[in-house]
Amino acid sequence: GGGTSLNGGLYFADSPEYFSEALPGMNQTMMYESYDTVRLELATPSGMSMFGEAWNKALDREGFGIADLDAPQMQWIPDKPFVPYSTFNQSKPDAPRLSSAHLLHKRAALPNLKVVTGGLVKKVVFNGTEATGVQVSIGWKLCSLVKANKGVVLSAGA
After folding, report:
1. pLDDT in tens, 79-101
2. Nearest partner of 59 among 67, 48, 50, judged by Cα
3. Which of 5, 11, 117, 135 is the most buried (most CB within 10 A)?
4. Rounded-to-10 torsion of CA 38, 44, 48, 51
5. What are 103-112's pLDDT values in tens digits?
6. How far is 12 from 21, CA to CA, in rounded Å?
7. Which of 43, 40, 52 is nearest to 89 (CA)?
8. pLDDT digits over 23-42, tens only?
């Protein structure tokens, strides 16, 4: 549905049709608002390159259409070329990559944030369609229930 590391630093959301099929009943408005919030903190428009321009021309020549190189899109639309956002800030020296770890470090001092590494989520606990916690095992400890008041993040990076 989107991501950073696995997609080569590209940041985008999948199509509404995909989410409707893969996650029926999910609140897509809330999900896309979350994607946009993260985009504002982590992503910048992808910088154009000679390769990107040549790729765009090849797509057009083969009948796939042409992407607007000056208008990055957040949402992937099947069978249509587009320019995604990037988690590499190409406007800064050395093009630093901003990932989910960046978000965690910015929020490290929050008293209500608990970050666990090496945990294995056994089950996401729901109240209707809202995730309210997880059953997790950490090391050799048995599964325990971790309740959430606001949100549940299962993975903060690949």
Report:
1. 788 888 887 776 777 767 777 77
2. 67
3. 11
4. -40
5. 788 888 888 7
6. 18
7. 43
8. 888 888 888 888 888 888 88
